[in-house]
Amino acid sequence: MTTELPFTRTPNPTPATPDRVAEVLARPGFGQYFTDHMVTIRYSAEQGWHDARLEPYRPIALDPSASVLHYGQAIFEGLKAYRQPDGTIASFRPEANAARFNSSARRLAMPELPEELFLESLRELVAADARWVPEQAEESLYLRPFMVATEPALGVRPSSEYLYVVIASPAGAYFAGGVKPVTVWLSTEYVRAAPGGTGAAKFAGNYAASLVAQAQAADQGCDQVVWLDAVERRWVEEMGGMNLFFVFGSGPSARVVTPELSGALLPGITRSSLLTLAADLGYGVEERRISTEEWEKKAESGELTEVFACGTAAVITPVGHVKHADGTFAISGGATGPVTTQLRESLTSLQRGGVADSRGWLTTL
Ligand code: PLP
Ligand code: COI
User: Fold this and answer.
1) Range of the domain at 258
2) Where are the N6-(pyridoxal phosphate)lysine residues found in this chain (predicted)?
3) What is the Å distance from ligand 2's center to 269 Cα?
4) Reported pTM
5) Among 218, 254, 269, which Cα is nearest to 342's?
6) Which is the closest atom of ligand 2 to the Cα of 312?
7) pLDDT tens across 154-212, in order?
8) C-alpha 225 – ligand 1 centre gap (Å)
């Protein structure tokens, strides 16, 4: 099996007009518009990874018996391409996305994609669609690599054929309200992931399983659902597409705490980066269990000063209010706190080349 695959390049014969690109980039929203091209790479048990292509963005043909349509072997990643001050385009820790993609693949009995091929697939697409990478500070080009099982067969077993695809979508704020604090719903009726399950994988089924609870959160007037552990329904895990951070105290002695990786929550790359950045800024950092009782009690006493969600799509989004079956509480009156703002600024300026990248977290695409 080789990692150096030649790409067959077929440019889109009818790319979006410059006016259309400008119109989309003026108001990209999230995940609504797609660029002119996509990358596809095929896998078969006999040939390994083969047939790498850069081709026009278009519908994919699947056999109706393709196993993803029946048994759901489907994983994905999410990362962004950022315009740098010198006009080049870089991504933030894409090697970590490649590693997580392979960890998801192992959990779902799918083949691993060599890291270099994952990075190469991003470079191919970004090179072809560079004009879709926004210039504005809050915006970027969201890259969505994914893999689905394509073998036409109904036997319940790992597929022997797969399709890997990368698509790209210009992205602005994930939440319609921008960087305003969100209200979250604590889900005790539904669980996202159980011990031994697929919660630590970026597996499509986790998101399917979350939708009914997300709808319940919306019915409660909330923006997002917060998942609790499956066993005691007491320990905070994460949100639908974001990890959570809690700030205790204030000023230089503030402590930044995030739920420990239980095996049921996604090991976010933003989460891991913020643990490092918060320590660099001089804050105490801790990964440990946090219960819903602690959350409410310490928000009410004022010891818990800030809560925020973080992820590639959502960047850092403050959590202002929490609602659960028995009531509602606010964190510091529902305002965005200074540690949240400072960490957001540190992270985004690093991603956009505004400060020195001392850890080599930026990779030019
Ligand atoms: N948790 C879930 C369930 C996610 O889907 C995501 C997004 O990828 C995250 C957390 C945050 O991960 P990252 O920071 O790597 O984007
Ligand atoms: C991301 O942040 O990349 C995510 O995947 C979250 C969500 C859009 C699923």
Assistant:
1) 182-350
2) 202
3) 11
4) 0.96
5) 254
6) 2
7) 999 999 999 999 999 999 877 766 678 999 999 899 999 999 999 999 999 999 999 99
8) 14
